[in-house]
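Researcher: Sequence recovery benchmark, item below. Answer with residues only.
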């Protein structure tokens, strides 16, 4: 999903690491069920193996939940945060039950219905009018295995509430919401993260819903690169 960011970072000479979650992209499935904390440890392990001591995590939705856990347990690794289309709150009981119902449906019918739903729910009107982009996104989603999706849904359902963590974040942060995200993480929900982090900047990105880095990469990249360079110069 971050292909447009990776190209922009390369043009700017900015180093990056792109991580696939277990069962998604090119990463094989995790052998057992896992938690958000497990994913954090996998990512931090890879970073330490590369000898990297500091990073600026950029995470959309589930990525944001991992970023909160990185701050909770590995704050010394963080120079700044870019939170995208995510929330600090844990799942409500209703949201948990919805995830478990989705899991049962995947077991019976496969993942096709979920991908169709996500393509509809997570994209803005301008993205929907771009057949090439919608097909690209569908191809990305289809790389996910059914096992990977099921295990990720369980991890999401059991994630902790992070609202109490916000005030402790003392590194620069930018929080980005898609202006057209009405169904997954509406701007008012995302804004609560910026409101809770001292000095955080909040930005609503037009022509984007739940996937701003993919839907409006030009504007997103401008924000991202300005933020990174600002940290470096500071």
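Model:
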């Amino acid at each position: 999903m971050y292909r447009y960011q990776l190209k922009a970072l390369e043009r700017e000479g900015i180093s990056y690491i792109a991580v696939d979650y277990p069962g998604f992209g090119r990463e094989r499935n995790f052998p057992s069920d896992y938690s958000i904390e497990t994913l954090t440890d996998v990512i931090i392990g890879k970073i330490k193996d590369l000898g990297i001591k500091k990073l600026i995590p950029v995470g959309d939705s589930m990525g944001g939940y991992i970023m909160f856990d990185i701050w909770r347990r590995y704050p010394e690794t963080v120079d700044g945060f870019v939170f995208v289309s995510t929330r600090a709150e844990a799942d409500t009981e209703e949201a948990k039950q919805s995830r478990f119902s989705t899991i049962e449906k995947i077991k019976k019918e496969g993942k096709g219905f979920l991908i169709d739903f996500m393509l509809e729910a997570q994209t803005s009107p301008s993205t929907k009018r771009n057949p090439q982009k919608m097909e690209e996104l569908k191809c990305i989603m289809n790389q996910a295995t059914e096992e990977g999706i099921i295990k990720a849904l369980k991890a999401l359902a059991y994630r902790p509430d992070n609202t109490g963590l916000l005030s402790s974040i003392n590194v620069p942060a930018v929080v980005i919401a898609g202006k057209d995200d009405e169904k997954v993480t509406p701007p008012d929900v995302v804004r609560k993260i910026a409101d809770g982090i001292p000095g955080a900047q909040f930005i609503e990105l037009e022509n984007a819903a739940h996937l701003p880095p993919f839907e409006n990469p030009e504007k997103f990249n401008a924000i991202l690169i300005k933020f990174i360079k600002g940290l470096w110069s500071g």
